Amino acid sequence: MQTATAPALLPDLLALDRERAGAELELLLAPAGRPSTPVSEAMRYAVLGRGQRIRPILAMRIARLAGSENDLTLRAAAAVEILHCASLVVDDLPCMDNEDLRRGRPTAHKVYGEFTALLASFGLVSLAARAVVEQRCTPAELSALIRFQIELLKVLDASGLCEGQDMDLRLTGAERERLRARMIELKTVPLFVLAAEAGLMFTDHDSALARTLRRFAREYGLAFQIVDDYLDGECASFKTVDAQLRRCRAALAPLAPAAAPLEEMIDYLYARSHSVTR
After folding, report:
1. DSSP 148-171
2. What are the C-alpha distances in Å from 30 to residues 44, 70, 103, 192?
3. How many whole angstroms separate alpha carbon 243 and alpha carbon 222?
4. Minimal CA–CA distance to 130: which of 82, 187, 89?
């Protein structure tokens, strides 16, 4: 990648996959004949609306590259995004990051209150896990879906997002900088690796292709967080961003030229990192 000029970011570069993910999320969060409640409304509010949908897009593109994309992988991709949104609701609470805005509008707890937002996050975790297996499928497909459901729930355990959030809240100063990479590994990367698992549900998990795509998902998750930190002023040098994006491209080298759709996702991060002037 040349750092002198940023690649053009077409407005519709990721739009089609984003729309497909959005439609699946709408379907999963539809009232389905049940009366609306504050909790269900807060669940919809937390998930629907503006969002990059990068994790489900990654899942869909990996499934496509692996030749296994279908309605079941789309549902798994949506489940990853629902789990991500549940974690954002918790992150934003006053006892956590105490955020007022998320995706350009008031956070869920600002609109619905703290206890309703917390209950909505529980509801979203349940929905993500349940939606994966509540589908018409063959016994072999069900086995793959259950395996993925286990991976989805493992993301939330004490060695995953929970520990990452705990580190984020506790660490300050030099110790925070020293352990920043570890914090990202725990708080951000697992959902990107989970997105890869969604795309790889119906492939040979031990194949060279699967290993390469998991490695890319990990590097991409790191890149995504580093770009966010750079845009927030927490990462002072673009060299750090550029180095990680190069690592993403290197991870895809064994798959060229078939990896072009994933290269587009790297270009998207590169363009985002150029959206501000330091």
Report:
1. HHHHHHHTTSTTTHHHHHHHHHH-
2. 8, 21, 21, 26
3. 11
4. 82
Mention every residue, 6+ apart, whose C-beta is less than 8 A from residue 180.
none
Q: Name the maximum alpha-carbon separation found in the chain.
A: 55
Distance CA 160, CA 162 (A): 6
> How confident is the prediction along the chain (278 residues), in pLDDT tens digits per residue?
333 334 444 446 689 999 999 999 999 999 777 789 999 999 999 999 888 999 999 999 999 999 999 999 999 999 999 999 999 999 999 999 999 999 999 999 999 999 999 999 999 999 999 999 999 999 999 999 999 999 999 998 888 899 989 998 898 888 888 888 888 889 899 999 999 999 999 999 889 999 999 999 999 999 999 999 899 888 767 888 999 999 999 999 999 999 999 999 999 999 999 876 54
Which residues lie across from 102 on neighbouring strands?
105
With residues binned 3-state (H G I as helix, E B as strand, rest as coil), the percentages for the chain, rounded to 5, are 70, 0, 30
Is the preceding peptide bond at 11 cis, omega within 30 degrees of 0?
no
Q: What is the pTM of this model?
A: 0.92
The vertex-218 CA angle with 263 and 243, nearest 5°, equals 65
Q: Which of 216, 196, 218, 195 is nearest to 205 (CA)?
A: 196
Residues near 75 by Cβ (< 8 Å), separated by ≥ 6?
Answer: 24, 28, 131, 132, 135
Contacts for 276 with CB less than 8 Å, ≥ 6 apart? 231
| CA atoms of 98 and 8, how far apart (whole Å) | 36
Q: Which two tokens stand for residue 271?
A: 């363009």
Nearest to 119 by CA among 43, 204, 219, 175: 43
